[in-house]
Amino acid sequence: MQMKKAMVISMIAAALSATAVTPVLAQSASAMQAVQIGSKTFVVNANPVAIRTITNAGVTLASVRDIVNAIGATLHINKDGTVVVKFGQNTVKLKAASKTITVNGVAASLQHPAKVVSYTTFIEPAAFVKALGGTYSADAESASITTIELLAGAEYAVWINSSKLLVSNTNETGREDYLVDAATGKYELLLTSSDTSDLIVSPDGMSVAYSDANGAVYTIDLSTKKSVQVSTDSSIKNELQWSQDGSSLFFLQGDKSSVIAKLKLADGTVSKVLEDKVDYKANLEVSADGTKFAYYVLKQPKVTADSSKEVELDDVAIDATGTEPQIYYYDSAVAGNKPVQLTKDANDKVFLELAADGSKVNYVSVSADDASVGQLVSVDNTGSSSTTVFADKDVYQLVQGGSKLYLLTADGDSTNAIYEIDSSTGASKLITTVSDSVSELIVSGNANFAALLDGQLAVSVNGKWKNITN
């Protein structure tokens, strides 16, 4: 009995002694229990990742190790407790309870000190990601981390499919074409060229086509990146357009774009679709069945020189009367058919779009009157019926996406607007407003949205714009 009693007393004394001599450890344990570790889904390079978080003094801190693992960085802890993280060319060092981190040997300040909870270091995610060379953004609903190097600039872009875009930039030696992932901005060089036409994406998104200065036509398989010459015909080929089934290319032939021609990819043969001796056709549009065509005819201004004056004076008069573009329609399926002139007015006409079935043509009409606004106009393929579809706001751009039409319009002092137009009824619906720095709207057949703004390409993700080039 005495031995058992002594053992109990000894155990109680040991416990009291531990409590009395280790107040710091007891306080740390209490503090660790007071801070609750949670989890939040971060979008890391377009992939959802669960990252542990804590809230300290009203600020959300994220697990250093979880972020390191998510982006593929390396982590090492020195004997003195310094956490060393390496990612690419960047080395970041930090310590718990410190409001200073070093980035490649240079000190940087944190607004809130790093904190250790349950042997895990937590830090301000924005400052940490920036120190590693990435970008961080967050709102009340989500947080995202991007560490992929983005392409510098974007001059031209078109959707290849719902997940990838073709982006082109020019330089001193020619043009570079890239494939850019719509979710992450990751890019790869597809083609470096000079004196070539723009790359035209096939309807199935599997290949692109282009012509060179000698008239040769090439296609590139986007899965293998293999380029193949499909024609040796040396005629000038302007405005290549794919047939819907991907078997042919249509184009305007000749230095004056006088002929509508067709190139069969299977054997490289070229045939004439329309040769009416009318020069300066432009903006070729082809129906889904490949038999109906819409295009502009541009007349050259009349230039008159005064024969009484010396040639060196270069004194000429230019008369542009009647040179406004006019829209023509041609149905090649009707034997002996001739092109039909659909418009005759003096307004400028831009952004020509032919309906898939060839039943009508949509375009933006712009009057020379400075007070007027760009209007969406639709004309049937006989030219007998013309309708102003949208004139509520100044229309800057018209683009077709699947069965819908989309407009980029003026809106306010610092914003533009995007409208969806039902091409069958003409009913309009406001989709969203955007910055007035948006200069071009890019829409896929599945209504994926992208835009060019201030030389950068952005895509719409859940109603928010995300830059995928710098």
From TrEMBL:
<dbReference type="InterPro" id="IPR011042">
    <property type="entry name" value="6-blade_b-propeller_TolB-like"/>
</dbReference>
<dbReference type="InterPro" id="IPR012854">
    <property type="entry name" value="Cu_amine_oxidase-like_N"/>
</dbReference>
<feature type="signal peptide">
    <location>
        <begin position="1"/>
        <end position="26"/>
    </location>
</feature>
<dbReference type="Pfam" id="PF07833">
    <property type="entry name" value="Cu_amine_oxidN1"/>
</dbReference>
<keyword id="KW-0732">Signal</keyword>
<protein>
    <submittedName>
        <fullName>Copper amine oxidase-like protein</fullName>
    </submittedName>
</protein>
<feature type="domain" description="Copper amine oxidase-like N-terminal">
    <location>
        <begin position="44"/>
        <end position="145"/>
    </location>
</feature>
<dbReference type="InterPro" id="IPR036582">
    <property type="entry name" value="Mao_N_sf"/>
</dbReference>
